[in-house]
Backbone:
């Protein structure tokens, strides 16, 4: 393998380091992802790129050649794959599990390669690697042609918005560098690519192992090939941030910089477009406008800043702006909405819970959001749309997403920053899903909150009380309804205006369409939460008696209400005591298998971690428990 | 039309974005400060991220008492110039037991650094700690997230990392859990050097070649930064030779191998770095413990 022009750097470094550094200083950066399975020679290709660009040192090479002899698959030759498979478990199993990032330079660019695993069970890793990539290299084994996984990888790259796709037909050395083989694979791929909306791709015949068409083209073995080498192509494609700077100006505000009363700056990374002092900008969601006074950086004020730069802007007017707001060009702002259609990629072992509240982070905004039942999920191998009740790990589907307050957004196709979001589980804090906003729903644009003249404060003061929700939670038969009933009687005697929402009663009317699956139980609680919220708006003290077994749903209701309005009351009764009582005979049925998803038997109960009030029904009578609760809420008024 | 951003401009903007996200979302962040060149770059980026305010978090140096004297001098000056509080933690147990690199081998790193770090983070209640680690340093680092989540006992679970998409970082955690954040994950050694040069960042003089007192120990070349102390611990005064040497990384002086060099300016250092044929961490003993998986294992135990 000869060293080609792209890597003629050693001489310059040795002779004139300052000239070399001057060149290096002006390099741009391209991030790309390589897709393919172990068998396609992906790791070998990356190892080759690192090796050719001198990113492998002698000590690493020495360790590598020892390892190659021990566990390598290339006989006595150096197994480049061992260089890039990082984690110990992966080395033993000979597969790439996680996304690994690699770096190399050529004369023109610095490259960051996301090396992603190829198997279907690693879809989430591939999506992760693709999310920051300007370009994707899709590897095909020339002996095998377009496979199911080729389609999957191409679909995922297209989904995540990668427009620069390289079809690298690898292992050409094993098919005698046959043009016929190459052409037929490219034709197959073109037919497929067009069917899923990939308009352009660049195909090249390579051998990662032998080095053909990697740094220079055409290789002596492929005189029939007239395109660029892989590296030449990587050096010349336009990077995302260059495209982004042509779009309208948007900057999510990360941080309000206030060192003293005389300075108020808004810091952020410019997502798209450019900005200059004197530009009129709009702050969303407030919609207020002002003029850019200066672009402040540590290195002095700038005349202009473009997409990809982290800056601090000062404005001529004192308008209220905080983290999560978006500064944008005044006459072409993005949309603000709270209901969307989105494409979701599920990243967690635990399925999507339809209706459950998750944290949704988009740009610098974090809101609470729920996902509706998916319209469909996509079979990533066949691209078929399948019916789905939920999404499991690595599933991709389309669903409506409702946020609890409006967010500033753009369709993902226009902006990865304002259109891409993650979903975070509120209890485990795991990143469970990723989403691409497609469009806002018409009803979210048209349904506005009706401002009424008689406010909730007015309702409350007429009743001379502070509205509360006393949320009783506990196992079936723990005594929730009995105690809640006692509490309500005591409050009524004190002239408090109350209302008791009881589990069974609500199921007879408002929620009679719901069953007892996990999704239905979440929806049950959500509706009760909304009703309780309306009642607090009316100034009432609301008592609710529901098993409400899941922490996250109770948390969801807590977040619907104003601070301190939600009083969680844990009716603490051990399972064996509740089961022994079995007032409604339900435990007996559940034990006999006649009742499915029964809390405590075949469905979990997640006890509150920090309830405002706990009553122990083994030690207290319902009467005593009620008195105990009233004593605790009275000081709250 | 402004020229496209260079790779260093983009790396800088990315690092500043990450640092600001942590400041905005963490309750009590801290910046790990080891006085090396990567730390110098990190400190510089923090200053840039919040200018004209000082960075809204302190610096934490987990000290082993065995650093080079030049390092201690720069530490004090840098913190003061940045207008930041400097916290120094020395593991009292290691202090008491007189743990040192000669008698205690791997235990020295474990007690002073790994344990010391955990103690400091727990003691001050920091929920996010910035580190200057880079993905090009070592294989298991290549797969670590920018926001690396740690359990209440500071452990790292490589199989259970949070997916990190776009530039959206999930900083949510429960009480007692913490996050290590690596803003210069995507930088290479060359990027760091070049950034130091372009931004004129002050670094410890030990990175540049000069005549220094050296001694050989177990096949490596080391600098006798404190000959009296060496003599006490080693039991005999090592044979000193004056040599023109410099350091590619800086740690404890008896653990950090010197390289013979004439590179006295930044350009020359970069030139030597580029033409060298051994990787940066090779001078460090830590990676060689426990076979190929040395660093990965240390990180699972809570090492940075």
Residues:
């Amino acid at each position: 393998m000869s060293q080609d022009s792209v890597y003629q750097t050693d001489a310059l470094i040795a002779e004139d380091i300052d000239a070399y550094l001057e060149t290096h200083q002006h390099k741009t950066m391209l991030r790309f992802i390589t897709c393919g399975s172990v068998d396609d020679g992906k790791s070998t290709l990356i190892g080759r790129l690192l090796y050719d660009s001198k990113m492998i040192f002698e000590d690493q090479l020495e360790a590598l050649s020892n390892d190659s002899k021990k566990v390598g698959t290339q006989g006595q030759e150096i197994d480049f794959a061992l260089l890039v498979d990082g984690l110990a478990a992966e080395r033993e199993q000979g597969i790439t599990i996680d996304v690994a990032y690699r770096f190399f330079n050529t004369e023109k660019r610095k490259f960051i390669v996301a090396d992603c695993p190829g198997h279907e069970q690693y879809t989430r890793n591939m999506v992760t690697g693709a999310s920051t990539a300007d370009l994707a290299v899709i590897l095909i084994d020339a002996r095998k042609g377009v496979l199911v996984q080729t389609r999957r990888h191409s679909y995922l790259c297209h989904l995540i918005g990668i427009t620069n796709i390289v079809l690298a037909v690898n292992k050409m050395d094993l098919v005698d560098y046959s043009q016929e083989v190459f052409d037929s694979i490219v034709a197959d791929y073109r037919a497929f690519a067009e069917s899923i909306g990939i308009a352009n791709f660049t195909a090249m015949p390579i051998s990662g192992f032998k080095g053909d068409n990697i740094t220079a083209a055409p290789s002596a073995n492929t005189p029939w090939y007239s395109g660029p080498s892989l590296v030449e192509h990587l050096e010349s494609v336009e990077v995302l941030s260059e495209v982004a700077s042509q779009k309208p100006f948007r900057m999510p505000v990360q941080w309000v910089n206030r060192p003293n009363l005389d300075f108020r700056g808004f810091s952020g990374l410019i997502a798209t477009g450019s900005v200059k002092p004197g530009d009129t900008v709009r702050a969303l969601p407030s919609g207020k406008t002002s003029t850019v006074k200066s672009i402040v950086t540590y290195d002095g004020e700038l005349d202009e800043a473009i997409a990809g730069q982290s800056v601090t802007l000062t404005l001529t007017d004192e308008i209220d702006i905080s983290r999560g707001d978006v500064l944008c060009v005044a006459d072409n702002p993005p949309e603000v909405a709270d209901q969307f259609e989105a494409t979701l990629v599920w990243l967690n072992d635990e399925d999507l819970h339809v209706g459950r509240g998750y944290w949704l982070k988009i740009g610098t905004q974090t809101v609470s959001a729920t996902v509706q039942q998916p319209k469909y999920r996509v079979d990533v191998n066949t691209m078929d749309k399948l019916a789905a009740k939920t999404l499991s790990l690595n599933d991709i589907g389309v669903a409506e997403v409702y946020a609890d307050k409006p967010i500033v957004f753009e369709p993902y196709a226009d902006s990865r920053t304002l259109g891409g979001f993650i979903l975070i589980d509120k209890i485990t804090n795991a990143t469970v899903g990723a989403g691409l906003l497609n469009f806002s729903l018409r009803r979210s644009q048209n349904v506005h909150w009706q401002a009424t003249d008689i406010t909730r404060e007015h309702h409350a003061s007429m009743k001379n009380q502070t509205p509360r929700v006393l949320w009783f939670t506990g196992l079936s038969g723990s005594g929730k309804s009995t105690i809640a009933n006692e509490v309500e009687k005591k409050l009524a005697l004190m002239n408090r205006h109350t209302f008791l929402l009881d589990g069974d009663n609500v199921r007879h009317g408002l929620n009679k369409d719901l069953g007892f699956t996990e999704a239905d139980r979440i929806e049950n609680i959500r509706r009760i939460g909304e009703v309780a919220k309306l009642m607090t708006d009316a100034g009432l003290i609301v008592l609710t008696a529901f098993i409400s077994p899941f922490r996250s749903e109770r948390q969801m209701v807590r977040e619907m209400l104003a601070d301190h309005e939600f009083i969680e009351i844990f009716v603490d009764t051990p399972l064996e005591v509740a089961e022994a009582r079995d007032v409604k005979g339900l435990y007996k049925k559940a034990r006999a298998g006649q009742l499915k998803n029964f809390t405590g038997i075949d469905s979990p109960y997640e006890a509150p971690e920090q309830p405002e009030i706990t009553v122990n029904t083994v030690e207290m009578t319902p009467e005593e428990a009620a008195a105990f609760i009233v004593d605790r809420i009275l000081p709250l008024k | 039309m402004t020229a496209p951003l260079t790779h260093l401009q983009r790396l800088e903007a990315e690092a500043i974005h990450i640092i600001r996200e942590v400041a905005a979302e963490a309750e009590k962040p801290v910046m790990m400060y080891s006085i090396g060149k990567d730390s110098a770059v990190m400190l510089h980026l923090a200053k840039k991220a919040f200018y004209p305010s000082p960075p809204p978090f302190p610096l934490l140096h987990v000290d082993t008492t065995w650093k080079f004297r030049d390092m201690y001098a720069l530490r004090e000056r840098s913190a003061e110039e940045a207008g930041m509080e400097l916290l120094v933690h020395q593991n009292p147990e290691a202090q008491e037991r007189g743990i040192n690199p000669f008698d205690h081998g791997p235990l020295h790193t474990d007690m002073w650094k790994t344990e010391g770090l955990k103690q400091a983070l727990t003691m001050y209640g920091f929920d996010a700690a910035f580190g200057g680690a880079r993905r090009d340093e070592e294989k298991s680092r290549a797969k670590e997230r920018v926001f690396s989540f740690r359990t209440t006992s500071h452990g790292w679970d490589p199989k259970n990392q949070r997916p990190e998409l776009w530039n959206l970082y999930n900083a949510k955690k429960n009480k007692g859990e913490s996050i290590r954040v690596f803003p210069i994950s995507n930088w290479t050694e060359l990027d760091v050097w070049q950034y130091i040069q372009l931004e004129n960042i002050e670094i410890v003089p030990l990175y540049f070649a000069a005549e220094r007192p050296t001694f050989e120990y177990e096949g490596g070349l080391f600098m006798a930064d404190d000959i009296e102390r060496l003599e006490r611990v080693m039991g005999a005064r090592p044979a000193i030779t004056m040599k023109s040497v410099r350091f590619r990384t800086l740690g404890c002086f008896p653990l950090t191998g010197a390289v013979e060099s004439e590179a006295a300016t930044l350009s020359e250092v970069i030139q030597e770095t580029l033409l060298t044929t051994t990787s940066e961490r090779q001078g460090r003993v830590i990676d060689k413990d426990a076979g190929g998986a040395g660093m990965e294992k240390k990180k699972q135990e809570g090492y940075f």
About this structure: The domain at 8-200+293-299 of chain B is CATH 3.40.50.620 (Rossmann fold). Strands of chain B lie at 29-32, 59-63, 86-90, 128-130, 147-150, 178-181, 210-217, 220-223, 241-246, 259-260. Residues 283-293 of chain B have pLDDT under 50 and may be disordered. Residues 7-25 of chain B form the longest helix (19 residues).
